[in-house]
Design brief:
The chain is an alpha+beta fold. The chain is 42% helix and 17% strand. Strands 1, 2, 3, 4, 5, 6, 7 and 8 form an eight-stranded antiparallel β-sheet that branches. The longest helix has 42 residues, at 146-187. The termini are far apart.
Length: 204
């Protein structure tokens, strides 16, 4: 997705993309070039023409994730303006932490949806930065039912952990019953006890 590309390279149709005022530009966290304000469909964001990264503020990204029609518009535009997306890109030589373009604080790296394999940079107070193709991959994860699969896997993990705890409890209970039975056998009527031995020695 590059600034200045207003027509589909395949069919020549006008793309649903508008470029904002240069005064609203932000510094790219990755390459330090200028990220221009753009709107794709009805979704405002900033894009870097140099490295094709994207910045969305928190409210906009939340709205995009929950609006299927807008997700479709952004994905459709990305399909004709970017390289094929890769949800699990090969790791770079070194992990880098980049500053938020709004507050300059170092952002946190997070696996989107915990299981998507799309590692994004997040400033909790301001928004999310996506390197080339990462936004497309994150939205595709949503549309493919990724969050529902992740929820099901979380539920299964919780049930497995509960079953493990129950087994451990039952095994502990069995060991307790065995110990209790052994102690009962040692102290049953007629058996010698420490008290009886002490009394016997005292009066003998």
């Amino acid at each position: 997705m590059f600034a200045g590309m207003d027509f589909c390279p395949h069919c020549g149709a006008k793309a649903a993309r508008t470029v904002g005022d240069a005064a609203s530009a932000l510094p790219c966290p990755g390459c330090k070039a200028e990220m221009r304000a753009v709107t794709i469909g009805t979704t405002p964001m900033h894009e870097c023409a140099a490295c094709a990264s994207l910045w969305l503020d928190a409210a906009t990204f939340t709205q995009l994730c929950t609006n299927r029609e807008e997700r479709g518009a952004v994905i459709a535009f990305a399909d004709v303006t970017t390289r094929a997306p890769t949800a699990r890109s090969a790791p770079s030589a070194a992990v880098r932490y980049v500053p938020c373009p709004m507050c300059a604080k170092i952002m946190n790296r997070q696996n989107f949806g915990r299981r998507s394999g799309v590692i994004v940079d997040v400033c909790k107070g301001h928004g999310v930065w996506f390197e080339d193709n990462e936004l497309h991959a994150a939205l595709a994860f949503i549309d493919s039912g990724g969050f529902e699969r992740a929820r099901q896997e979380d539920v299964k993990q919780q049930l497995d952990e509960q079953a493990k705890l129950i087994r451990e409890f039952e095994e502990s209970g069995q060991r307790f019953r065995e110990l209790d039975a052994a102690m009962t056998h040692r102290t049953k009527p007629g058996a010698s006890s420490l008290l009886e031995d002490a009394l016997r020695s005292f009066f003998s």
